[in-house]
Specification:
Layout (H helix, E strand, L loop, with lengths): L3 E4 L2 E3 L5 E7 L8 E7 L6 E6 L5 E3 L7 E6 L4 E6 L8 E10 L4 E5 L3 E5 L2
Parallel strand pairs: 2-11
Antiparallel strand pairs: 1-3, 3-8, 4-5, 4-9, 5-6, 7-8, 9-10, 9-11
C-alpha cells in the first residue's frame, strides 16, 4: 500500500511558477512509475507528466518546455516544477504511483492540490 500526499498548490499570476511535491509513504518507492495528472472543472482528468522508475520522462504537449518532473528516491518524493504558467493550467493536480506485475496492477492516487493561475 502506498499513500500519496501532494503539496505546493496555490494562486499564482500568469507567467509565474509553482513547484508541486508529492511524498509517498511505504517502502519501495523507487520501483514505482510516478505521474502528475490534472483535472479542470468540467473536463476529464489528463496526464501532465510522468517519470519511470529508471528516470525517463514524458510530458503532455501542452506543458512541454514549461513543466519539469523529477524524483528523489531518497526522500520518497516526486516534484513538478511549473514555469510560465497560463490560466489554462488551472486545475486540481493529482499525484499517481503505479506499477504492474504479471498478476496485478498497483495504482495509487493522492487527494489533489489546487493550482489557480489568475491575475
Amino acid at each position: 500500500q502506498v499513500q500519496l500526499v501532494e503539496s505546493g498548490g496555490g494562486l499564482v499570476q500568469p507567467g509565474g511558477s509553482l513547484r508541486l511535491s508529492c511524498v509517498a509513504s511505504g517502502s519501495r518507492f523507487s520501483i514505482y512509475a510516478m505521474g502528475w495528472y490534472r483535472q479542470a472543472p468540467g473536463k476529464q482528468r489528463e496526464l501532465v507528466a510522468s517519470i519511470t522508475s529508471g528516470g525517463s520522462t514524458n510530458y503532455a504537449d501542452s506543458v512541454k518546455g514549461r513543466f519539469t518532473i523529477s524524483r528523489d528516491n531518497a526522500k520518497n518524493t516526486v516534484y513538478l516544477q511549473m514555469d510560465s504558467l497560463k490560466p489554462e493550467d488551472t486545475a486540481v493536480y493529482y499525484c499517481n504511483a503505479n506499477r504492474a506485475t504479471s498478476f496485478k496492477l498497483y495504482d495509487y492516487w493522492g487527494q489533489g492540490t489546487q493550482v489557480t493561475v489568475s491575475s
